[in-house]
Please model this.
Amino acid sequence: MNSTANFQVDVVIPTQTKYLHLIGSIGEHIGKDLEDFSGDRNALAYHLNLVLTEATTNAIKHANSEDPKDTVRINIDIQEQELIIKVYDHGQGFDLETIPNPDFDQLNESGMGLFFIKTLMDSVTYTKSGDCNVLEIRKLLI
Amino acid sequence: MNSTANFQVDVVIPTQTKYLHLIGSIGEHIGKDLEDFSGDRNALAYHLNLVLTEATTNAIKHANSEDPKDTVRINIDIQEQELIIKVYDHGQGFDLETIPNPDFDQLNESGMGLFFIKTLMDSVTYTKSGDCNVLEIRKLLI
Amino acid sequence: MIVTEEKTNGFSALFVKEERIDAHNSAELKNYILHMIEQGKVNIIVQLEHVRFVDSSGLGALLSGFKHAEAKSGRLALSNLQPQVLSMFELTRLNRVFEIQTDLQDFF
Amino acid sequence: MIVTEEKTNGFSALFVKEERIDAHNSAELKNYILHMIEQGKVNIIVQLEHVRFVDSSGLGALLSGFKHAEAKSGRLALSNLQPQVLSMFELTRLNRVFEIQTDLQDFF
Ligand SMILES: Nc1ncnc2c1ncn2[C@@H]1O[C@H](COP(=O)(O)OP(=O)(O)O)[C@@H](O)[C@H]1O
Ligand SMILES: Nc1ncnc2c1ncn2[C@@H]1O[C@H](COP(=O)(O)OP(=O)(O)O)[C@@H](O)[C@H]1O
Model:
């Protein structure tokens, strides 16, 4: 039997930054539990913590619909060879292609979140899905 | 605005004890985030960690259908006044009413899990639900 | 399960270096203690300073060690419990079974 | 955000006592540092020994402090970074911006 069987986590949180710790920790634990991953599991754990934190922060900060009952949904699907994170927001959306990488010679206080996500994971897309937007992040586990 | 808005966590794990840490930690974080809870939030965090760990352990150990692809689903629903945990298993089930409290004068190595759940939470039921069983645990947050 | 063992004043001190004891690692702790007792180390103090969380199977592992040590006229005691871990012993009244000290040194 | 401040050799050492800096508490860290600079404490070493996790907003808070200290002819440096936290500075090449020492004492 494969020691890292498929599993799923689905979380719906209010748009409040106090929940970032919960979301990040879930990513950290998942990384540490992926016993079949041949790379550095502690690094993977940190990276999943970071990527989930950054993606959720963006959904809270940039896509807040001003409705105090607005929520962010985070879905994590761990398959044998791949981990798929989906973060759903109810904001006005944005065009991922137009966001440039940070200028490393003159770094800015902000604008590093998507850079981390793109650098540490294998693919990232942002699309409309029904009445919300979904940031989909994939990481190969082989 | 209520600072502890409603939120939900839904996790599906393989029947392996290595995932207990993840499930327990989620409970611990939720407890610490419940800013409206008037009682001791650190104690609540420990209790949710414990109750989720015990309930998931039972679903893994006593209800394992021998199928390596068997899973346990854990659902946590945080509402304004109440927290509801549901743990779904695919085993043969059991009758919660027939399980006695531990004999404190002659304690046994096992049989303390349900005692913790009943003592620390406000209500517990175990019922059939479709093709699975569900242990439902409620804790008032007022 | 990370544990270390030390011999002090005729006792074997067992330091549990895990933050969490649950059904994933409690069988290992139980077997470790039973193995110590089989080797003739029947007076054991389990030092729990690092343990932030223990579930019913963890309590069960310690209770099993207690009973086996007693059966060989030894004893198994506990030290350095974090407050929330101690409260698990109180809820199950296991604090009346185990001798529990604030610090390992308090046994001597 | 739990921080403590110490005056050493003309520097203000700021000890961050949180395990995690993210968008929930980074604004507080940023404002704390800016307030120090406004008070004339323009030479700051941020001691990060306790910090196990930092996100982009945490890096941004430190960078903001760095820029403000520099604008007042001071400097903001860092010490005691855990390896994974250091790797965040390397990924963004912020390790070329900040002076980073293994230990607070290494500055003196
Ligand atoms: N979910 C989102 N909805 C709307 N805009 C977003 C979203 N995520 C990112 N953006 C846009 O992309 C930009 C870059 O994001 P990021 O790299 O995470 O840095 P930062 O959030 O610090 O600006 C943001 O400033 C914002 O304009
Ligand atoms: N999900 C379950 N499916 C079947 N039986 C269960 C389940 N949960 C608990 N039980 C039964 O209830 C008993 C008591 O459970 P518990 O108090 O948690 O102690 P322990 O698991 O240590 O025996 C178990 O031994 C088992 O027979």
Summary: The first strand of chain A starts at residue 7 and ends at 14.
